[in-house]
Design a protein that fits this description.
The protein is built from 17 helices and 19 strands. With about 575 residues, it is of the alpha+beta class. Strands 9, 10, 11, 12, 13, 15, 16 and 19 form an eight-stranded antiparallel β-sheet that branches. The protein is globular and about 75 Å long. About 40% of the residues are buried. About 10% of the residues have low confidence.
């Protein structure tokens, strides 16, 4: 009898969650600390008798492809995310949304691709100066693959771009309008690093960490002029740049120094009468809209790497949003980082030529909290709530029968990851027109591991949707395919495969919509053509639905697009 009770108790105690950290790289210390706080297990790399076991979560440091042999579990990277968040690719994705929804996507500065759009950039400056010769606009140049502020510089004239780049013209960069009149604190320019979790693509789930970092410049701000354009410590908020400044202040406090908590800055603004709920509402809206812009192409990469119906892991990812607040408190998107720094220490010179790694309490509190809450959300504990990984002011305690437990779950700090999507679906669903185009693209792409349509597949799309006519023959279709594919491929990286990728297909779809519905605005043209295509495809080959991986996506309810344009101010009361 006693032996039977012991056996029953043994069966109730299930194995702990395991996390493979072998590819974690610079995030290793923060991930290990998070695992320790959760009382989970680091996945062993060597097993007795050579028997390799299944791991629950794989934590990669750079990309989904850090480990090619994963057939199950969860990976903290999406395939294609690094490519999608390069400066040029992100700019193109947001620009596409600006064509459809100019007012909703006015949070991203006007941008040009160098050298491809050099002439358009020059023409813009000439036009500005013709209107007002006294204006001297400033622009910031960001290398496409740059990081940590490397290679960024300011210019005021197209000739400056030629001079500054020298033999660098062949390398791509984004030329972006410089944001004037930024909000200053202590007369210093600063930006916000906000951590955002994409828990899944289908359905789309987005969480925002309720705490973030503010990174300050180390030279008092002045409006850009020809004399101070080279003052990077005045104009550029990149932490890696300003950390080299002699004026950089390392502080153990959360509300002083050159890097502080976001909550300390918001508290300071609130004390001056700023409506912080409105600021959070606008920032949340910016985050959701940006992810909606990049999500369609992410789904193409996802299906190419993890085809539906075949074994494979599920994915999630923490992104780093860099946001600038203007003087009027409007948030502006600077960039999105696929691999935000999760280091919890900094390098400090303690003597000439002697450097030490110094623990950073600020980084540890915020970054470990984000990682821990992400892990806990991905392996949800009993009693957790659907909108947040932990209830504010309460901790999840778990129980001995939970698969995450080996015994008693520790009391953990309650840094919440706040769900903002699909919680606010009604406010933003009408923006997902490009996702519906992507669903059609995936329908004709098939599941062959590629991300581009060939000319035959494009012709099949035209035929199935009955878009050709006596005024638009199949010869015209072929010309359209060649023209748009050639135009788009001229700016793609060498690693991209030949054919019509999703961005080119979207532009072709815009062209087709404009031909068919000439009297409407572009947004309505696209929406009308989508309804035509979806109806045609729904009636053929039992297609029935256009959702990702064969399931109907909420965004495919074509009749709702106009009715769901609810003002995003509802976020204010979240």
């Amino acid at each position: 009898m006693a032996s039977g009770l012991k056996l029953m108790r043994k069966r109730r105690v299930k194995r702990p969650v395991t996390v493979d950290t072998s590819k974690a790289n610079a995030t290793l210390e923060a991930v290990k600390l998070s695992i320790k706080q959760l009382r989970w297990k680091v996945f062993p790399q060597v097993f007795p008798h050579g028997q390799r076991k299944v791991c629950d979560i794989y934590w990669h440091g750079v990309s989904f492809h850090d480990n090619e042999n994963i057939v199950s579990g969860q990976v903290n990277k999406f395939p294609g995310m690094n490519e999608m968040l390069r400066k040029i690719t992100l700019s193109r994705a947001v620009r596409t949304m600006q064509e459809l929804f100019p007012e909703e996507y006015n949070f991203y500065p006007r941008s040009w691709i160098h050298p491809e759009e050099y002439e358009q950039f020059s023409a813009h400056i000439r036009m500005v100066k013709e209107v007002d010769p006294t204006l001297k606009p400033t622009f910031i140049v960001k290398p496409d693959g740059g990081s940590q502020g490397d290679g960024i510089f300011l210019i005021r004239d197209p000739s400056d771009l030629r001079i500054m780049t020298g033999g660098y013209q062949a390398k791509q960069a984004v030329v972006q309008e410089y944001i004037h009149r930024p909000l200053l604190i202590d007369k210093l320019k600063f930006d916000i690093r906000l951590y955002v979790l994409i828990k899944s693509l289908e359905p789309l789930e987005i969480y925002i960490a309720k705490e973030g970092l503010t990174r300050f410049c180390t030279e008092l701000y002045q409006e850009p002029s020809q004399k101070n354009l080279s003052h990077v410590f005045m104009h550029l908020t990149n932490y890696s740049l300003n950390a080299r400044s002699d004026n950089f202040v390392h502080s153990d406090s959360l509300n002083t120094g050159s890097k502080r908590t976001l909550s300390s800055v918001l508290h300071r603004l609130a004390s001056k009468g700023v409506d912080i709920k409105k600021v959070w509402s606008d920032i949340s809206s910016l985050v959701i809209k940006t992810i909606i812009a990049v999500e369609p192409e992410l789904k193409v990469h996802y299906q190419a790497n993890i085809p539906p119906g075949k074994p494979g892991p599920s994915c999630f990812q923490i992104l780093g949003f860099d946001i600038l607040l203007m003087e009027n408190l409007k948030p502006v998107l600077l960039e999105v980082n696929a691999n935000p720094s999760m280091k919890i220490e900094h390098t400090q010179q303690v003597a000439p030529g002697v450097f030490e790694h110094i623990p950073s309490p600020l980084d540890e509190e915020i970054k470990v909290g984000v990682i821990r809450e992400t892990l806990r959300l991905m392996r949800r504990l009993p009693g957790s709530q659907p909108g947040c990984s932990c209830e504010q002011g309460e901790e999840n305690r778990g129980d001995a029968s939970s698969p995450e437990m080996t015994g008693f779950q520790p009391r953990l700090p309650s840094l919440c990851l706040k769900q903002v999507y699909p919680k606010y679906t009604e406010q933003f669903n009408y923006l997902r027109l490009v996702e519906r185009i992507a669903a059609i693209f995936l329908r004709f792409l098939g599941v062959k591991g590629n991300t581009s349509l060939g000319p035959t597949a494009f012709r099949t799309f035209i035929k199935n949707c009955k878009l050709s006519s006596s005024h638009f023959s199949m010869a015209c279709v072929d010309i359209l395919y060649i023209d748009i594919t050639r135009r788009c491929s001229s700016s793609l990286h060498d690693s991209r495969e030949a054919g019509m990728g999703l961005p080119a297909f979207v532009q072709a779809f815009f062209h087709l919509a404009g031909r068919r519905f000439k009297s409407q605005a572009l947004r309505d043209q696209v929406s009308s053509l989508l309804e035509v295509c979806e109806a045609k495809l729904a009636s053929t080959l039992a297609f029935g639905s256009l959702g990702f991986e064969g399931r109907r996506s909420p965004s495919c309810s074509s009749g709702r697009s106009r009715r769901n344009r609810t003002r995003t101010s509802d976020l204010t009361n979240a």
